[in-house]
Amino acid sequence: MVSSQEGLISKFPAQSASPLGKLGIEAALEAAADPSITPKPKIFDEFALTDRVGLVSGGNRGLGLEMALACCEAGARVVYCFDLPEKPSDEWIASRDYLGNNSRMEYFSANVIDQQALWKKTEEIGDIERRMDFCVAAAGILRSDTDCLEYPAQKYREVLDVNVSGVLFTAQAAGRQMSRFGRGGSIILIASMSGSITNRGHAWVSYNSSKAAVLQMARSMASELGEKKIRVNSLSPGYIYTSMTAAFLDSQPHLFDAWSSMNPLGRLGRPDELRGVVTWLASDASTFCTGSDIIVSGGHHSW
Ligand SMILES: NC(=O)c1ccc[n+]([C@@H]2O[C@H](COP(=O)([O-])OP(=O)(O)OC[C@H]3O[C@@H](n4cnc5c(N)ncnc54)[C@H](O)[C@@H]3O)[C@@H](O)[C@H]2O)c1
Questions:
Q1: Whose CA is nearest to atom 36 of ligand 1?
Q2: 126, 139, 173, 207: which sits with the fewest CB atoms below 10 Å from its CB?
Q3: Which CATH architecture has domain 51-302?
């Protein structure tokens, strides 16, 4: 008997086949037709990053480091972390050591606005690893509240340089290696809910404009790179407690309650609450997702 689902699958074009073989209903039907097959849950295999190579900018601390660690825990061979300081932070070293022999994290001092340095270093990584599978462009800056009618040119350009040009240069560096090795890949641009809403009570015109640019950058790059099987998505967190937001919260403690009250969950997010979504986006669990903005904001957008 040919079930309706089996009939549909047989008409599916070969290029749409899952890289993990038969999954879900198709796997169940195969097992039903062949008693020698022992059913095995595959959902976690879909999230695994076994032997993958990744690049994370802003990977010395905060969300970038949290995401680098998550990807290593998901099985990546190595994640290269790019960030400004000459030497990695204590938390970076502790995270690297926490992995033991299961995966590797490497640190490289780089400024994301230096396009040539990023391209060159990433090409060297390609020469060593012979693959590049995922990239998280997380380096970003947020400057103090400044009236939009008075915003100084230099301060504005500085934010746009890091948050827009730096994100593009990071994505280019990784994307060029993905293209070189022809295996596709996943590029995750860290944007913000500030790319599609304005943070009430804050004069952050440079940051908000930069993050809106990142949303469109993801769609634009996704459109160009789909034919190379390179997926590009943006990931937009809401308020998460990191050094970036601590710069505001620690000096203005009333903001804890103010920001918490702006989402239905009534709290700020933790960096570790982005582990699942970044692993999903980097992995084969999201192979049909490109050109999308994934918002993880505790529901901030819902009100
Ligand atoms: N924390 C939040 O609430 C929040 C919310 C939405 C989006 N984001 C975004 O997440 C990303 C990570 O932010 P975070 O909260 O972890 O902040 P963070 O300040 O802890 O981390 C940012 C990292 O980027 C690095 N960086 C800055 N400029 C750089 C440059 N020119 N070259 C290389 N590295 C550079 C910093 O050194 C730092 O390690 C940023 O893009 C930020 O805009 C954060």
A1: 58
A2: 126
A3: 3-Layer(aba) Sandwich (3.40)
